[in-house]
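Milestone M4 deliverable, item 7.
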Amino acid sequence: MNNLNVFVSSTCFDLSQIRSNLKDFIEQFGHNPVLSETNNFPVEPNLDAVENCIKNVHEFADIFVLIIGNRYGSIIETGKSITNTEYLTAQQKGIPIFCFIDKKILNALSFYRDNKDGNYTKIVDNVQIFDFVDDIRSKANRWVFDFDDSKEIISTLKIQLSYLFKDSLKVKKIFDTDIDDFFKEHLSIKCLKILVEKKSHFEIDFLAQTFIDEIEKKEFLKNDIEYSILTEPKHYISDNSELTRWASNRLKAVGQITSNLSSLFPVVHKFIGELGQPSDIKGLYYVSLKYAQIFEQLLNWMIDVKSTSVKENQINIKIYLADMAFDVLKTLWDFPFGIKRQLENIKKEELLGNTITTIDLNMKLQLNEAALNKFNAAILELSTQINNEIN
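Output delivered:
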């Protein structure tokens, strides 16, 4: 079946009639309503109710309809309600989200902002519902529709779904005619969306997103380092002279990795077009692949260093060596997310009528100086010890 899955998220018992009416409407519209109380709701027997809800949003939902009444609902381990968590999952997935909020909640929101310690028990079951709504409207800057009853929700959805389908046809046409087959095979949905929409600064947005997509493929390696889940040692070093040679070679290797990164960033500026000129998108994707490869090299370098077996009294040498590169590793991971934050701020400024044409794409890479000094001191002490033994 090619029907769209429309996930309806809300507290159930207080909004049961609205949910039932929406189910009927979605079916009449020719699509598949996904509601947790219906018998066609996909259930994984080994998961609990919350996990099943999140799984269904993540794996099945094509469109997400959020309805907020006067109940926040059951709170789970994260401190948020199930509905709130479903919404965050849909937001992370990047699917269309239509938010409907009870008019009484929106009317009371301004009073809550001015007096958060007030008594709102006659309006809501938990004041977290106001924070939830505020997050949707302010932080996510998402459009919301108010409602009194299901008729208003259905009437609005008819119009909005029609707009959505028309936009989808336009996107499909652009995708079919303007997007290179190479990109269709290799890029994530988020990247393809950036290329299709071509909003302001889309080339930089594309670069940041491809950076993120590619380094996230290496996240398990990063976790191995973070949680000290290391491979079997490739090197067993018991001789002091061998240890100094190994440490020297490892230091040269990390120096080469950082040098490769320094060589990569001038290439970025080569592929980004001057103001008003098109950028080389395939070239930017090449840069992202190389960036991720260098990131992986650094991860493997650190795993190799940390897992190497040395004498108990020389463990500090490999600790200092690994610590030297930790800041570089963190910088590489954080960098594309920093570009994304810059773009968000630029878009906010543009909404205020302020034009910003420059984005900082510079990266400062530096080995941890304190760890380097400790390493050099430890190697000097070891070299002195070796010389004394020889003499």
